Amino acid sequence: MPTKLPYTLPMTEYTFAVLDSGSDGIYLQRSTYDALFSRIPEAKKLKTGYWRVPCEGRQELWVCIQGQVYRIPYHDWVKKPTAAGNTPEVVAEIGPGMCQTKVFGSSPGPTLLGATFLRTVYTVFDFRRPGYERIGLARLTSVPSSST
């Protein structure tokens, strides 16, 4: 059974997020990004500031929006290994069996939830009434596997 990350993210810097279907990743405030990955067993921070996690795992990433929890399976937020992602220098720094993620730290600004998040939910954009635009999200009954 998948386990949740043993940490509630301190999403207090901003009270809003941007849904961006044109971006594949999830972009968090740098402090939130570092707090998340520092709690993941065996995660390692590179000299560049990016984190790597074990290529195999079961921990889900949980995103809570207005009291609703949306779960992102491990295989959807962790990239499969590529030669470009784990150069000999990176492997020398962190060891083999480590992978990049689709979660990134960014400069101050809102949290950005890209396709990594959006492929795990039903999304409805309702723009019928000017001034009352809204976006609806619902959990999928089963989350499709990522193709990357």
Helix content estimate: 10-25%
The beta-strand count equals: 11
Q: Main sheet: which strands, in order across?
A: 1-9-2-8
Global geometry:
elongated
Taking all Cα atoms into account, the compactness measure Rg is 16 Å
CATH arch. level architecture: Beta Barrel
| Amount of beta strand | 25-35%
Largest sheet entry: 4 strands, mixed
Looking at how many chains there are and whether they match, the oligomeric state comes to single chain
Describe the protein's architecture and organization:
With 148 residues, this protein is of the alpha+beta class. The N terminus is likely disordered. 16% of the residues lie in helices and 30% in strands. The protein has one domain: Cathepsin D, subunit A, domain 1, CATH 2.40.70. Strands 1-9-2-8 form a 4-stranded mixed sheet. The chain has a 3-stranded antiparallel sheet with strand order 3-4-7, covered by helices on one side. A two-stranded antiparallel ribbon has the order 5-6. It has 4 helices and 11 strands; from the N terminus they run E-E-H-E-E-E-E-H-H-E-E-E-H-E-E. The radius of gyration is 16 Å and the shape is elongated.
Short description:
This is Peptidase A1 domain-containing protein. The chain is α+β, with helices and mostly antiparallel strands and 148 residues long.
Identify the notable features of this structure and list them briefly.
four-stranded mixed sheet, PEPTIDASE_A1, Cathepsin D, subunit A, domain 1, single chain, 148 residues, alpha+beta, 16% helix, Peptidase_aspartic_dom_sf, Peptidase A1 domain-containing protein
